[in-house]
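Dock KG4; give full complex structure.
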Amino acid sequence: MTIVMGIETSCDETGVGFVRDGVLLGDALASSMDEHARFGGVVPEIAARAHVQAMIPTVRAALADAKLSLDDVGAVAVTAGPGLATALHVGVAAAKAYALALGVPLYGVHHLAGHAAADTLEHGPLPDRSIGLIVSGGHTSLLYVRDLVRTPIVHLSDTMDDAAGEAFDKVARLLGLGYPGGPSIDREARAGDPTAVAFPRPLTGSNDPALGFSFSGLKTAVARYVERPRDPSITVADIAASFQEAVADVVTRKALLACRQQDVDTLVIVGGVAANSRVRSLAQERCDAAGIELRVPPLRLCTDNGAMIAAIGDLLVRDGARPSRPDFGAIPTIELTGAQLASA
Ligand code: KG4
Ligand code: ZN
């Protein structure tokens, strides 16, 4: 069985993982998050430099974690897109160098397919049909998913403006909470009342697209609320909890509707916002009530990492996919329709 090395550098995490036959053998992660904190968001040039610096040490750390040597690697998979161009280039160049030096095949893969594949490391192969809810910093989509690698992935909806994670990051800034916003709102919200402020549930009216997402209006509603004089008994924690509740309510409501519409009984929630405690608990509550199986990766595999890229690479290798063309480059913007980018 081939051991696949996965390399992820689409944003501010340098991730490396090793997967064989659906099993995670080991991984390592370096992050430049702290360097971006004072700018309130990821600075592409800083992220790219940090990837260059972290790449070899992270490969070594992942090898040590997996108790492997480079000679054991039988294939390399790398995030080719979507993501920050400068950051993607570092991973793609490194992956090409490793694949060439080791004489093994190279697969350029779609970052979001990696997010979905992360779940298979914990819960095994996906069922024949499932609904995927991707909620990350750059994407919010409902997908109709079959096997992830062979059958094209169908987009049921995509956000019309901000992604869910982006809304968390922007609202955290409005509330004076730290970057990245998702984890800090999640923490702050624990002490808050989710019913304190009735924030809008975007695109849930009878004339709205039933599966559509939009978060920019919700962000503006929080901004307006914060600007105006308000009831002094309402705390930042209350506002954070109320905002988080609105996002969790909308994404889980629409994901369950997609399951009903497609007559599918498995929901897979992936991406950074799948780490959110309220999204997880409300999704579980609603799936239990509807008789739908919920699959969510363990917390550390929700946000960007190398294991998920190794996982999707492993699925491609086992499916007999042909390696990517040697001249493929990074593709910063690309819709998810299949696991592999730049196939032969
Ligand atoms: O999937 P990811 O690591 O990177 C992208 O592919 O975008 O997602 C990062 C996003 C950020 O916006 C971050 O604030 C959000 O996921 N996030 C969370 C939580 N942890 C990370 N959002 C809500 N609650 C969390 N616990
Ligand atoms: Zn991601």
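Observed: The chain has a mean pLDDT of 97.
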